[in-house]
Write a structure and sequence with these properties.
The complex is a heterodimer of chains A (1179) and B (418). Chain A has 1179 residues and is an alpha+beta fold. Chain A contains 49 helices and 15 strands. The N terminus of chain A is likely disordered. In chain B, the strands form five sheets. Chain B has a nine-stranded mixed beta sheet, with no helix packed on it. A five-stranded antiparallel beta sheet of chain B has the order 2-1-5-4-3. A four-stranded antiparallel beta sheet of chain B has the order 14-15-20-17, with no helix packed on it. Chain B starts with a strand and ends with a strand. Classes of the chains: A alpha+beta (1179), B alpha+beta (418).
Chain lengths: 1179, 418
């Protein structure tokens, strides 16, 4: 307390000091601000000292007074670098600032703060103003306040005691009702690096972490690493906060908290489990910078949690590619090891076929759209994620995006090219189509040129080498000599890697030997040396030619290379070699060290092969070397003399001299400097530097066996399981009662957000548990469109469950829930087998619900209402039935956003909802199918028809189904979803349709051309056909770049309509108008399996695209009415083109007898429909 | 995360520094200056440098270096992208991003930097959010501020940061509601000596200027979206709609922004609007050379090629050029060895020609490399790829906006090798 008091005194003292000076400064004080009193005269000392300050004073407000220029800057530096030691000027200067800060006028304060901040910006010391500034921390003027914050954050560390004065202001700010003020107070408080306040900060962070405002929570997340760097001992407490914030459901917080996680506890991967799915789903809506951090973290996470998706292919692929790899012998060695490893891996794989974890797929799927981001860092992050995590067949998608980044700023290019260079070594095929994008322009900076060259070299193979070499040829003429040298090396690498062009390259390089530029020649010599080493016997001519060059070339490295060559292959040039040695002996003393060493080598080799001619020369050279200044050379000479010249003292070694010197030397391997860089996570700083940077987290290896996937299951408390549509609206709100939730949701949220978190994940994990391949695959693709419905489905099941299990209390214990889930799983499985279409499965759910409602006094509906009520009321307590009514209306209000609901009924609304949701999700499923060929079983629920068989299509097979989604470009068309599978070995290009032959009146909207369908891949496209309400086939040709196939699409009559919603009364009214000729009635006996309401509805809706008319809607208000004795099922639809009404009625009687009535304006359609429905119900 | 930022001018003076964590001495920049000394051109300075204790990541924009100091692992692109965003913001605020402008507005710059990063992690980078907090300086405002003592800092608190669409501020109101879209395509090409195309592609960008009141929801569709091979979007564009329907659906930011970038694949034939016939030769003796260049229209789709300009980086040995141009005029910069021929409009009847002699340094060997021609041009009212905007629909607001689309084709990196 006493210290605090002392501290509080300080500013007063400061004021007193100021006051004493005040009188003398007073005169200038007014003048100093020319804005205020422009006519005031300025004193000479002031002018001389502060031209710069003046300038800023002027410019601060006007922005126009930039005349001061750099001259003033220089003058000022001198006194400042002395750091306040110049007692004369410094106090004076700052005194006037203090004066201004003490004044009552905000404008004066502002000017003073601006000048101070300008000083800080220029790196000048303004620390002695601290007391004067800190007083203004509570200033009312926002700009002054902000500038004071800037100052505080900058100097608090140096003046810890004084900084404490400001703390109380921030503590007050933390309690402010305005979220932005709370956030800014926390932000500044946490930025003040003063150790004493660590406990205060900790407290503030903890409090802010549970603030109502997501913006404050975000700020809390930002504050965590600040506190951690100030006091690492707080780690444990901070982890708790991180854990809490990780569970936050808002996009605003996600990026920041993951950043905090990465800084504080990146090793605590276990904290991610529960939030993994949520992060994946939120990702697309997180701001760009957060996306980068999250994606990088998830890459690491996925490496620890999932299996290597390429484990099965690796043996086959790598085995065959190892023949092709050009990195010669050395590659083979580790190949051995690799093969062993692979063998093991494959053995494991064989035992258990690889099935991708749905969570793994979720990550890949949700990151893919981000390749389209404008932010290069995001694109790179996704690219590295795919490179490290995706199955081989899917990695290709990133190439295009990376090539796009090459258009960006040169710094971006630099980083991207480094990463591309690494990728091209492992996955050459990926970038081959973009070869030309790496062509070099004369205006590129040198470092970019060299990287592009690297990529081009990596991409070279037998097929494209000729174009690449031609391109290289133009590069050699460049003015940039460093680049030319790099090109020559690149040619050398191509030549070593691709045997076919070795001779061509060699000839080309030899021609370069006559180049005028010495650097070029020297580089060529060095490269030629390496090439010749691979097959010397053929090239004695070249060696001779090079021998002649020794007279001209002065570059030591080149001379040394030539000498080495001659020495190594002296047998091929027996006549020239001694002559070269003679010349070299003459110039020995003037040579560089590296050349001298090679001369000694040459001499030694010649002595061993041709001692007669060269004995004396060798002696001479060795003698010269003996007295050389360089000890290396002296040592070498001594060593060689002992070795080759036989004396009585010479040891056993001399016998082996020949072996030592003329041993066969392995050809050098020219390899990319980017080889093996991929053990660093791509896109990281460490990768770029090829050295581990501080704080780098290793990318873990894939685990041998997948850890338990159930850790990612999230137990969602009852009340947060809001139905999907509500989540759509408020998905980012943790608790619905937050007042500021409007800020985040609102009508304008992006359509990209997939609001499927807890429920879908719960479900998909369930399927992964089951382990059966087909199951998980199905769940994969279904989850796209079903996740929305999942909630309801689940809820329904829960309800049934509950009834079966003697009405359990609402608050289920965990164990019950899990058992519940298992049951559900089983149930779901069976259901999936049954259900034929996704949308129907949903409809069917609602049907089952209502059927139950009829049979069991429609209590289930009451439950639904209860649940909805529970959603709007967070605490999970049972809701009283009395409040049911209004609650239900509330939830229905929400639905109005989707479709105006004509009457307050639960069942039809669900149908509607799902329809619109399915449409919303259409895009998602499309993009996903493109991406995941492995996991596609295209819309298993919808009936698939074959358009083109694999055999007739020569590897291209096409299936289509009627997706039953509105075809957006034209409402009168039926959407036909086509799935192309290319099982051929070659890529299919430019898939499009041509030559459409139609009956009159019919129209077709072609699907967009598929530019490229790589072998083994699958693509989906949607086309629209207006069938004119007839079942006539649409004939057209399906064309690839090579072939054309005649195909036709014929719709079943049931697909020619779209569902409409009618109430029972409306239905009856319409039916009354469609009597007589327009009514067809048939009696039938229902199939044994199809006697309950549920299956009738399911079968009808499968056969015909109609929606159910809710029955008993009039009984809605009074649930406990018994179901009618003879259930009537009504369905309504309209034909797509003409919009004529189609009404179907099924009346069931005893023992499976039933009566089917179809009312339709178009009799032909009616008749066909009766047939189809009869078939569906009796089979 | 980003620790500190230094702004350095071309001559190597640090004129602004900002630290987001504890202060790092400017001496850390010495490593950078060392690298800068070594590099011939400022572009050649490696963007990432390693020093014993720090990593330096820098960009070069508008004759300035933005140098950031990093202490721990971070994706380099993250920093580079952010630094460019800083430069963009400055450009946006002050009209240009030069040393003198930044020095004049040093306080605003500092306030901006303060808001853009928190503890080295980007906080607010959307220009709409920033402009709500810190108003860009205008002449009118500076006059008013001088008189009233007002400030550049917004009085209201920025709500944009809180919303789900941070790129748009709330409560936008205009009397004239208008939306303009400029479709600008650049042809990148390498043409070889004989006139055949080595490589050509079209890069397009749609720049938008949207001044609409309220919260309009726009849908922009194309006649032929199939053309677009690769696209990247402003965050406001909904990916899913694009994936499924090939339309751009978005709630636009207020004011100018780049809606999308696209790429038209090089597989499609790219029309090359101009050709160049050139011969540049140097004689073995006499230290001189000849130059003869003619530019002509090739596939200009019936439009006029404008603002034609040829830029040639001559070999070092070339001392002067004595040329005559039939159209336009030329300059030869001795220091940078760049010959610029500004032609203007291309007249298909009378092709522009530039010929004459070049003087090279006496005694120097004949330059063996021929310089390549960099051609610049513009074609108004044409998108060379054939892309056409079909319609723009607006939902969510009642008024009728004024809509406009403009097309422009430019030369990007258009190079003719000799």
């Amino acid at each position: 307390m006493t210290t605090m008091q002392k501290l509080l005194q300080l500013p007063v003292n400061a004021v007193n000091i100021v006051k004493t000076v005040q009188s003398q400064v007073q005169g200038q004080e007014e003048d100093k601000s020319p804005v205020l009193t422009p006519d005031g005269g300025q004193q000479a000392w002031y002018n001389a000292l502060q031209p710069d300050e003046l300038r800023h004073l002027r410019s601060g407000g006007s922005g126009g007074g930039g005349g001061g220029g750099g001259g003033g800057d220089k003058e000022e530096k001198a006194p400042l670098e002395e750091g306040g030691s110049s007692l004369q000027s410094q106090p004076l200067r700052h005194d006037d600032l203090k004066e201004m800060l003490d004044s009552n006028k905000d404008s004066l304060k502002l000017e003073a703060m601006k000048r101070i901040v300008a000083m800080i910006a220029r790196g000048k010391n303004a620390s002695d103003l601290f007391p004067a500034v800190v007083k203004n921390v509570a200033c009312k003027n926002i700009e002054v306040k902000k500038l004071v914050y800037v100052y505080l954050v900058r100097y608090a560390e140096e003046q810890q005691d004084l900084a404490l004065l400001s703390i109380s202001t921030f503590q007050r700010g933390l309690k402010d009702p305005n979220q932005l003020i709370r956030a800014s107070a926390l932000r500044v408080l946490s930025s003040i690096r003063v150790t004493i306040i660590v406990p205060i900060m900790m407290l503030a962070i903890k409090e802010a972490a549970s603030d109502m405002s997501p913006y404050v929570r975000k700020t809390a997340a930002h504050a965590i690493p600040k506190l951690y760097s100030l006091d690492p001992e707080q780690k444990d407490q901070l982890i708790e906060v991180i854990e809490k914030l990780l569970a936050d459901k808002t996009t605003l917080v996600a990026g920041s908290v993951v950043m905090a996680f990465e800084e504080v506890c990146p090793e605590r991967i276990d904290l991610i489990h529960k939030n993994y799915r949520k992060l994946c789903n939120l990702l697309i809506d997180v701001e760009e910078w957060g996306q980068v951090v999250i994606i990088n973290m998830l890459t690491r996470y996925a490496r620890t949690q999932f299996l290597n998706p390429n484990i099965n292919e690796s043996l086959l692929e790598e085995g065959s590619s190892s023949d092709k790899t050009f990195y010669g012998s050395e590659e083979d060695e580790d190949d051995e090891e690799e093969k062993e490893k692979k063998a093991e891996a494959v053995a494991i794989a064989k035992r258990k076929p690889y099935v991708m974890d749905p969570d793994h797929r979720l990550l890949l799927r949700n990151t893919k759209p981000l390749l389209q981001s404008r932010n290069a860092a995001v694109v790179m992050a996704v690219a590295q994620l795919y490179f490290h995590l995706a199955p081989k067949a899917e990695v290709g998608v990133i190439a295009k995006a990376l090539v796009r980044l090459l258009r960006s700023h040169s710094e971006v290019q630099y980083v991207v090219l480094q990463n591309v260079a690494t990728m091209t070594i492992k996955r050459r095929g990926m970038f081959e189509p973009y070869l030309k994008s790496f062509y070099i322009r004369s205006t590129d900076p040198t470092q970019i040129k060299i990287l592009k060259l690297e990529v081009l070299t990596n991409l070279a193979n037998e097929t494209n080498i000729s174009t690449i070499l031609r391109e290289f040829q133009t590069y050699i003429k460049s003015m940039d000599k460093d680049f030319v040298a790099a090109t020559i090396q690149a040619i050398g690498r191509c030549a070593t890697n691709i045997g076919e062009v070795r001779d061509t390259c060699l000839n080309g390089l030899v021609q370069l030997l006559s180049n005028r530029d010495e650097l070029v020649v020297a580089e060529s010599v060095v490269v030629i040396k390496k090439l010749l080493q691979m097959q010397p016997e053929k090239h004695s001519d070249i060696i001779k030619h090079m021998a002649k060059l020794t007279d001209n070339i002065q570059v030591p490295m080149a001379r040394a290379s030539i000498l080495w060559l001659i020495g190594e292959y002296c047998e091929h040039v027996p006549k020239i070699a001694p002559d070269v040695l003679r010349k070299m002996a003459k110039s020995f003393t003037n040579e560089e060290d590296i050349v001298k060493l090679q001369i000694i080598n040459l001499a030694a080799k010649l002595y061993l092969t041709n001692s007669k001619q060269t004995k004396l020369l060798t002696q001479y050279v060795l003698n010269l070397a003996k007295y050389d200044q360089n000890y290396d050379i002296r040592d070498r000479a001594r060593f060689i003399r002992q070795l080759i010249v036989p004396t009585e003292k010479s040891g056993a070694l001399s016998k082996y001299a020949k072996k030592l010197f003329l041993a066969l030397k392995p050809a050098p391997v020219l390899e990319s400097p980017f080889k093996d860089r991929d053990h660093f996570q791509l896109g990281s700083l460490s990768h770029l530097l090829n050295a581990k940077a501080g704080g780098y987290q290793e990318l873990p290896d894939w685990p041998e066996a997948a850890p338990d996937p159930s850790v990612r299951n999230v137990e969602v408390p009852e009340w947060t399981k809001c139905s999907s549509r509500e989540k759509r609206k408020e998905k980012k709100v943790e608790k619905p009662f937050y007042s500021d939730s409007e800020g985040e949701s609102g009508p304008t949220e992006s359509a990209d957000s997939e609001s499927d978190s807890a429920s879908s994940s719960e479900r998909s994990s369930g399927s992964s548990d089951s382990g059966s391949g087909s199951e998980s695959e199905e769940s994969e693709e279904a989850s796209d469109s079903e996740e929305e419905e999942e909630d309801e489905e689940e809820k329904d099941k829960k309800k049934k469950k509950k009834k079966k299990e003697t009405k359990k209390p609402r608050q289920q214990s965990e164990s019950e829930q899990t058992s519940d889930e298992e049951e559900k799983k089983r149930e779901r499985k069976s259901k999936q087998c049954k259900s034929d279409s996704e949308s129907e499965s949903e409809e069917e759910e609602s049907e089952s619900e209502s059927s139950q409602s009829e049979s069991e006094e429609s209590e289930s509906e009451a439950e639904v209402k209860k649940k909805k009520a529970a959603e709007s009321k967070p605490p999970p307590k049972p809701v009283k039935k009395e409040s049911k009514k209004e609650k239900k209306e509330m939830s229905l209000l929400d639905l109005d956003d989707f479709e105006p609901a004509p009457s307050p009924q639960v069942t039809p609304v669900n149908t509607f909802l799902s329809n619109s949701l399915v449409t919303d999700l259409e895009g998602l499923s499309l993009s996903d199918t493109v991406l995941s060929p492995a996991t596609i079983s295209p819309s298993s629920a919808l009936k698939n028809y074959e358009l083109l068989h694999r055999i007739t299509g020569e590897g291209l097979s096409v299936e289509y189904c009627f997706s039953r989604q509105p075809f957006s470009p034209d409402g009168n068309m039926v959407a036909v979803q086509m799935q192309f599978t290319n099982s051929a070995t070659a890529d299919a290009k430019s898939l499009h349709m041509e030559d459409v032959k139609l009956q009159s009146g019919m129209r077709v909207k072609e699907f967009p051309e598929i530019e490229l369908l790589p072998a083994g891949e699958t693509a989906t496209a949607v086309m629209g056909i207006d069938f004119c309400d007839s079942t006539q086939a649409a004939n057209f040709q399906l064309c690839t770049h090579t072939r054309k196939f005649f195909v036709s699409i014929q719709p079943p009559v049931g697909e020619l309509m779209r569902p409409v919603f009618l109430t029972e009364n409306e239905f009856k009214k319409e039916q009354g108008q469609l009597m007589g000729m327009n009514e067809i009635t048939e009696k039938l006996t229902l199939d044994a399996k199809c006697r309950n309401e549920h299956s009738i509805v399911q079968r009808v809706t499968t056969a015909v695209n109609v929606s159910r008319v809710p029955c008993g809607s009039d009984k809605e208000c009074s649930p406990p009415v018994p179901p009618p004795a003879a259930p009537v099922h009504r369905f309504a639809g309209r034909t797509v083109t003409s919009g004529s009404l189609v009404l179907i009625t099924v009346v069931t009687k005893e023992e499976g007898a039933a009566q089917l009535t179809v009312n339709c304006e178009k009799m032909l359609i009616g008749t066909m429909l009766v047939k189809d429905v009869l078939l569906a119900l009796t089979q | 995360m980003i620790h500190s930022l230094f702004l350095i001018n071309r001559s190597g003076d640090i004129f602004l520094e900002k630290h987001w964590k504890s202060v790092i001495s400017r001496s850390v920049c010495d490593y950078f200056f060392e690298a800068k000394e070594k590099a011939v051109e400022p572009e050649d300075v490696p963007p990432v440098l390693q020093t014993p204790h720090h990593y330096l990541i820098s960009i070069f924009r508008g004759k300035l270096f933005f140098l950031s100091v990093i202490q721990t692992e971070i994706p380099p692109l993250f920093v580079i992208e952010f630094l460019h965003r800083v430069a963009d913001t400055m450009q946006d605020y002050f009209g240009e991003c030069s040393e003198s402008v930044l020095k004049d507005n040093v306080v605003t710059v500092y306030e901006l930097l303060e808001e853009m990063l928190d503890n080295g992690f980007p906080l607010a980078t959307e220009s709409n959010v920033l402009k709500e907090m810190i108003r860009p300086p205008t002449i009118l405002r500076s006059v008013v501020n001088t008189l009233t003592g007002g400030s550049n800092v917004g009085g209201t608190l920025p709500t944009g940061q809180l919303s789900n669409i941070p790129w748009r501020r709330a409560g936008v109101k205009y009397t004239n509601n208008e939306a303009y879209f400029d479709v600008i395509e650049e042809i990148d090409a390498i043409v070889d000596k004989s006139g055949s195309t080595v490589f050509a592609e079209i890069q397009g960008v749609i720049e938008a200027c949207v001044r609409l009141s309220g919260m309009p929801d726009l849908t922009l569709s194309f006649m032929n979206p199939r053309l677009l091979d690769d696209v990247s979007f402003h965050p406001c564009v909904r990916y899913k709609r694009w994936e499924s329907e090939r339309v751009l659906s978005f709630i636009p930011p207020d004011g100018n922004f780049i809606l999308m970038n696209y790429h038209v694949s090089s597989q499609n034939l790219v029309a090359i609007p101009v050709y160049a016939k050139q011969s540049i030769s140097f004689f073995e003796t006499g230290s001189c050379g000849r130059l003869d260049i003619t530019i002509g229209p090739k596939q200009a789709m019936g439009k006029t090629v404008e603002s034609l300009m040829v830029r040639i980086h001559m070999p070092k040995a070339v001392l002067s050029a004595n040329l005559t141009a039939t159209q336009g005029n030329y300059t030869y910069d001795l220091a940078t060895k760049v010959l610029v021929w500004d032609i203007g409009k291309l007249n298909p009847q009378k092709l522009p020609n530039l010929r004459g002699s070049l003087t090279t340094q006496a005694g120097a060997p004949k330059p063996e490399d021929n310089p390549s021609l960099n051609i610049e041009f513009k074609i108004q009212q044409l998108a060379i790829s054939g892309l056409k905007v079909s319609r723009l629909d607006m939902h969510g607001e009642k008024y009728k906006p004024f809509k406009g689309v403009k097309y422009l084709t430019k030369a990007g990196k258009f190079q003719v090798r000799t």
